[in-house]
Amino acid sequence: MDSEILTVEEAAQVLKVAPEVVRNLLLKNEIPGRNIGGEWRTTKRALVSFVDGAPLQMACCPSEVCCSNDAGRGCC
Prior knowledge:
Number of helices: 4
Strand content: 5-15%
Largest sheet: 3 strands, antiparallel
Radius of gyration: 14 Å
Distance between the termini: 23 Å
Strand order of the largest sheet: 1-3-2
Order of helices and strands: EHHEEHH
Helix content: 40-55%
Structural class: alpha+beta
């Protein structure tokens, strides 16, 4: 499940880096995430997108709609 919510430690395991690396990426807004109650959360989808170098697609928009949009703009 790509939208699985991850802690910093879980995200670090996915990326195979130290948790501090993930925290720094979150603080610099290089990986999307939220600080909830003093603890960071992100998603597996955000991590894969970061590694691939591709922007995150809007969750409200099925990929076949956004990708086939003749105007070349998102649906949201």
